[in-house]
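Progress report, Aim 2. The chain analyzed during this reporting quarter is listed below.
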Amino acid sequence: MHINVSSEIGHLNGVIVHTPGHEVSLVNPELKDELLFDDIIFEEDAREEHLEMLKIFKAAMPADGRVIEITDLISDVFQKEDARYHFIDQLIREFPEANLHVIEQELKELTPDELLCFVTEGRIKKSKGFSLNPTPNLLFTRDLAAVVGNGILVSRAAKKARLRESLLMETLVQHHPMFEAVRDKAIRIEGQQSIEGGDVLVVSDKLVLIGMSERTSFSGLMKGTEGLLNRGVKTVLAVDIPKQRSSMHLDTIFTFASQNECIVFPPALMEQENNVVALHKNGDNIVSETKQSLHTALREYSGTNYNFIKCGGEDRTNQFREQWTDGANVFALAPGVIVGYERNTNTFNTLVDCGYILMNQYEFIEEYEHKKLDPNSDQKIAISFQGHELCRGRGGARCMTMPISRTPIS
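Predicted structure tokens for the chain:
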């Protein structure tokens, strides 16, 4: 598969996901805050909802499109001894408080499947001496990396609860053959810096947005920006957003829907000024310029006057309620073909007012399972899917996807 993402809305060809596994059932309610969950979720229902979401993706994708489970990639790469050892060495170094060096040899003697179980569930079935917390956030593959053009920005998690996932992604990029073409162009974030994929939105191969959120630090943003500008991106728009749980990433308050439309949570972006900084290269230096708003900055650097569609519609209470349940976190399968949680009814009604056809997941699958989706059609479709358990994890359709291949917009 040719790894390349030059927009948020190009026809989806390849995407990495993680269908919830037993790790979500291991979240003790007393540890849910530490594990970055607002609630516990029921594994069986969450898994079924996720698999139903993937059916939507497969119906929309071309015949050779691929939906890839990240645990399959990890299992593949753990077949290689050098990859296993590489990961274990990083794990021991990054988690000194866990005293994993005591069982280093035991870890290196695990089979690939046993090591994968330890990574995701935090336990070695044959050993009762050591354990780690589970990794329920692996569900949100978006945050592990961002493919930008024909390169990749490898995330480094801000919270210890997700750092193990960052180490997994770095190991995949370093050792899995799928990433061979982007390996030498990978942008890596190190040390105390942090950046997460939910804060990175690709407008085009020349323009990228990065949110400065509670999960992406200033130093991480600048390191990522430097890497992108050195690899062909002309401008990075740094968007300062509220540093709070409800808006943990830029994509929780802002996503792209079509070539000239975005879904936006108004209080965090439309009602703010001077919260966007344009960054670009001038010789060997990165120069900055403050912009009045995200809307004006997008218009200036993309040449498109985007229509900002309000998450939750016009009513302020509905805006807050539906942002809370990821109404702004839609995922584009093709230009103007988007998917999101059905519970955000006011957001969907607003999309209908903007010319979208509303289809539930079953209607869309029945229509397109055996019929090719035309990504160049003028028809706009908003697809609703059930996610009552998935929603408890505080992440929508975009959060649960890491696109690695999209058809460029002509």
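The mean pLDDT is 94. The two ends are 20 Å apart (CA to CA). These observations will guide the mutagenesis work planned for the next reporting period.
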